[in-house]
Fold this protein.
Amino acid sequence: MPDPAQLRDSTQIVLQRDVLAGLDVDVDDRFMVTVATVDEEYCRIVGSPVVIKDVSDFLARNGVAVA
């Protein structure tokens, strides 16, 4: 049985809002994801594992480190 934390990590990216600033519109337009505000400091990008991988690659190409 898969570990819930591992599944969650493959379907979401949590970033500080200022790190995503300027790229959030591109991410929302290019990919089938939901960009949601977690709180004043963080936002969450949620999508399928395949799309999250693509978003992670896109963010990396744009200088955003995703762990």
About this structure: Residues 22 and 62 are 11 Å apart (CA to CA). The radius of gyration is 11 Å. The chain has one domain: 4-61.
